[in-house]
Input
Amino acid sequence: MNLSFESVVEEDFEAMLALRLEALREGDLTRTIENPFPAVYETLRLNFNQAVLALREMVQAWGYACDDIGDGQSAWEML
Output
């Protein structure tokens, strides 16, 4: 099989994106894509990483809000 450098690089970045999307589907919000993609796809990597970070922040904020609600309910029940 005669593979060009471009096709090998493209396969690598497609495999990495597939792995990270699978992790995201399973709820793992810790895995971003660190290694740069080929220039034509770099925006895709950056957008993916920003989306994962935004989701992580949203879930953390939601968790903090739930903790606050839980704390409020506990205090209210003590009255």
